[in-house]
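Action item from last meeting closed. Structure (120 res):
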């Protein structure tokens, strides 16, 4: 028969491991969000040129998604589908595709701005 104490130890150890992993993403952790724009730009400049361009496009995409979410606007399932497809492309093609997706989102924002909701 297994002792109840030893049965609980693995789950306690797992909980401790998960806690350590989450700490990496918390403020000050090695994978924490970079809030200082200068530090962020510096980190991008340390990447190879193709990855710099991809990272900038992904940042623009994230900013657009945040903008849509803040205004309770939907981007559309076609955008999510396009991003899933783009994720499978080689880096140069992925960058170009994400740039196109960002352009579509910007056009949708422009059209939304022309609606009566935003007119004076």
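Sequence:
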């Amino acid at each position: 028969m297994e002792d109840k104490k030893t049965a609980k130890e693995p789950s306690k150890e797992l909980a401790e491991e998960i806690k350590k992993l989450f700490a990496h993403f918390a403020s000050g952790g090695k994978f924490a969000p970079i809030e200082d724009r200068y530090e962020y730009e510096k980190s991008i400049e340390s990447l190879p040129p193709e990855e710099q361009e991809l990272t900038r496009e992904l940042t623009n995409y994230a900013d657009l998604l945040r903008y849509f979410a803040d205004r309770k606007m939907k981007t559309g399932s076609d955008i999510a589908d396009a991003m899933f497809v783009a994720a499978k492309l080689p880096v140069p093609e992925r960058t170009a595709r994400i740039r196109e997706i960002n352009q579509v989102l910007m056009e949708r924002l422009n059209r939304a701005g022309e609606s009566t909701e935003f007119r004076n």
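Note appended to the action item: The mean pLDDT is 82.
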